[in-house]
Amino acid sequence: MTADPGSLAIRRGYADTAFGQVHYAECGSGPPVVLLHQTPRSWDEYREVLSPLGHTHRAIAMDTIGFGASAPVVDHSIETYAAAVLAFFDALGLPRAALVGHHTGGVIAVEVTAAAPERVERLVLSSTPYIDAEARRRRKDLPPIDLVEVDPNGTHLGELWGRRQGFYPPGRPDLLTRFIRDALVHDPADLEAGHEAVGRYRMEERIGRIGCRVLCIGATADPYAFPELQRLRAHLPGADIAVVDGGMVPLMEEHPSEVAELIARFLTDA
Length: 270
Hints:
By secondary structure, the chain is an alpha/beta fold.
């Protein structure tokens, strides 16, 4: 009998690193795969993906340093986030692992793989932008994504909801509620820190160091990332591409079974 994909228990814990404690959730056993979330989310973004992946892998979703329940960080940069991921590998005794990143998590995953290519078995970049000089100039002139001014009457919560609502599927307020819950963990001034870190990153100087197999996943209804799919892949010769039709920014929660199957198939494909 085939196991129920939702039957595996999720375990949560903390790993002690030089950056402070890193919170994570994991499921299953087997070859490790570490999953990195978008800004300003947490491991919860992968809640529905962990159990399906856990049937073939030790699936580990960590809170990026400075987000979720992980320790705060002063230096919000992609390089710092990536160094904390490698410290997390060390704390869990993982000499090598597959790596999955979504949005900001994908940019962090690029830097982890560039900094320590010998430690990344395979790489999955989901809805990941390509950041070069042109992208940095473009992002510099864009208005903030999640920065809102706190109002004593709480109207800033509605403003934050409204800013994100167009990127979430209609009729799924539960998904947007999960985003708001993660966002409220932080000082409002820090909500934009991860986006600003992406906007400063010099990916064009690092992406050439990636030598492992790569899967790029695009979601057709994601206006931020889907236009970047072919641009990213052009700098990753030989990378596989998978497209999720209709997927939006919360891809991992909106289409968890399809995404988990894509990741598992790529990681097990000889």
